[in-house]
Amino acid sequence: MANENRFLVRKVAVLGSGVMGSQIAAHLANANVEVILFDLTSKEGHPNSIVQKSLAFLQKLEPTPFSVKSKVNYITAANYDNDINLLEQCDLIIEAISERMDWKKDLYSKVSSKIASHAIFATNTSGLSIQSLSEVLPSHLRKNFCGIHFFNPPRYMTLVEIIPQKETDSKTLDQLEAFLTTTLGKGVIRAKDTPNFIANRIGVFSMLATMYHTDKFHLGFDTVDALTGTSIGRAKSATYRTLDVVGIDTLAHVIKTMGDTLPNDPWHSIFKVPNWIQTLISKGAVGQKAGAGVYKKNGKEIHVLDLELQNYRLSKQEVDPSVEAILKIKDPSEKFKQLIKSDNPQAQFLWSIFRDLFHYCSVQLQDISENARDLDLAIRWGYGWSMGPFETWQAAGWKLITEAINNDIASGKSITNTPLPTWVTDQNRVAVHFAEGSYSPTKKINEERRKLPVYLRQHYPEKVLGEKHSYGETIFENDGVRLWNIDPDIAVLSFKSKMHAIGSDVLDGVIESVKVAEKNFKGLVLWQTESPFSAGANLAQVTQALQTNNFTILETMVKRFQEASMALKHSLIPTVAAVQGLALGGGCEFVMHCSKAVAALETYMGLVEVGVGLLPAGGGCKEFTLRASREAKGGNIFPFLQRYFENIAMAKVSRSAEDAKELGYLRASDTIIFNPNELLYVATAEAKGMYESGYRPPLKSRDIIVTGKGGIATFKAALVNMLAGGFISEHDFEIGKKVATILGGGEIEQGNMVTDEWLLELEYRFFMELLKTNKTQQRIEFMLKNGKPLRN
């Protein structure tokens, strides 16, 4: 009975192996879901060669859709003619063929008799009517039929919209939402069955309004991209680079769909494909996939289309200094006041695209979304904006913006004279997002979040402006960390530093927190209130000590780092690292020393110290040597040690949590989850489980078998070859020799046993030697100034 409402998914079918279908299949495989990927029967060669070619292409894609290469083996290639009976085994079927209503309906007629009665059938359309698509299905399948709109690329984009039609069972939606949220790690928004749903309706409108005002203010495409990217909290690719990435032909199709299906939209006049886009399509210059679009590469130079020249020119991305100064204003209200009153065309352009976006969202909200929160999250998750439209409006001052929009409507500056809805202009309205919920124009209330059981796993869901999170009760705190709890049995340790960098205050805080937690709790979880887990050591603090030539401080810091790592490893209660995003250098070492790690799929771990001319000295080298010794089980240690040496010497960073396991940063016993909002919940449960099973920490090692001089010599020989081939610098060679010596256990005979303390002392000694070299100090300084490594 406990599983009565759970959606148990053993096998999924994806219909269509194009760009979206194949990548959806890849992400399902990432989650250890068996997938059957269907397409048409090939007319030549193997019947499944269409799918096989898609899978081969997937394995070359960057960024990779697979968490590790081997996941492709979970996908079975199939075709509709020979393998259609396989659909009977599937619990979820996702259709992802081309955006043609007639093609989709023809396919539904072909497969519907093979779909099990319990299975959920969903279409990955980006904007077609779900109701119309459902009409071809037999009545018994309609209750389990809905829209499921993934965003590209499916592994990395958070948003999935699910869209019911009139007969969709609410239980179907709840089960699908739970599966998408926990198993695939998605942020789910329920959209209404309207053209382009929520994210694309607003996102494409925003792009059309931007195009309209680009022309109106006579701005270059490169200037618009300089104005509409990260400087206003949007994706780095901004507007026209995004257009090239998405595909100019694809956008033209979406614009045409909006024009055809939204004849009564007050902004219908701009729902048309600009002539310059039609010209590019006719020339085949449809964007990145064709090698040219709005932009094209000319050698190493980036060139941009100039409509006045009717040709490409060098891209300059020039922003007027006065507008740049406005965009740097921290206070949103003051920033918008300055944009509104400025006479500069670039400032007026920015205000115009924001004004039209706010105006459009307020007019359409009731028809396309349940509430303002769903619209804002859909845009953030689907388009990579840092704030949604309503959040931006609210942050800038509701009444200020409302008055400015009304003034522009009255003066004819707006694209349409459609008035703002009365709920917007209500004299008591100061916001749409509140602690208790977000405004729903349909229900005329501030609507709470959905209370599905799956969301009990999210102690701190991603919040919108106006929502508050209370991070428990403080137990201990210093300048670097805060120890707190919401569960009476488990303490949570969070870092307070920028990028959660590890400096002296963090090290002191970790050591003290372990002591406090041992006395008062059953477990300790390391979890940050926001990503990343940790970018590593606080280099600014290291630089300060170097500038005053105070090596005593640095010696103390290294020893303290080792003490903190060992405190986490040998704590009398289980310590669990809850990791997402970057876990680099010292952050990676902390994870390696905890009793267990719970890592979100998108975790990027690595011991990257060589990039700043150093080596891991917080126990990372020691831990790798210990693991190699244990993995060898008395046999030849060198093959096990070799991959760890390569990790450190090449500063390898994992491309996922699964990859971190393959590289050895995570252990086989560590847990990987897909939704980072569930990290704290799962890590807490793991800590409790370990405590209840009678957890005892590992004893300090006295029997680590090492390769000694023989292994070190082999590593050094490889380094000599790399130096001779120009693959590494002289300083890299020196660092590599020191890493080899630590991993080999020092200049002793092969087969000898050493202790943790022996290896930690080697780490400490060689770290301090490197720190005193000019080239290492140059690398540290360069990294702080430029954010990338110097290979001197």
Low-confidence stretches: none
Number of helices: 30
Q: In terms of structural class, how would the helical and strand content be classed?
A: alpha/beta
The count of β-strands is 23
Approximate shape:
globular
Roughly what fraction of the amino acids lie in strands? Answer: 5-15%
Mean pLDDT: 96
Multimer state: single chain
> How many angstroms separate the termini?
65 Å
How many whole angstroms does the radius of gyration measure? 29 Å
Please summarize the sheet with the most strands.
8 strands, mixed
Helix content: 40-55%
Please state how the strands of the largest beta sheet are arranged side by side.
3-2-1-4-5-6-7-8
Description:
Helices cover 44% and strands 14% of the residues. The protein is of the alpha/beta class. The strands form five sheets. It has an eight-stranded mixed beta sheet with strand order 3-2-1-4-5-6-7-8. Strands 15-16-17-18-19-20-21 form a seven-stranded mixed beta sheet. A three-stranded antiparallel beta sheet has the order 9-10-11. Helix 6 links the parallel strand 7 (159-164) and strand 8. The mean pLDDT is 96.
Observed structural traits:
eight-stranded mixed beta sheet, alpha/beta, globular, 792 residues, seven-stranded mixed beta sheet
Q: Would you kindly provide a brief summary of this structure?
A:
It is globular, with a radius of gyration of 29 Å.
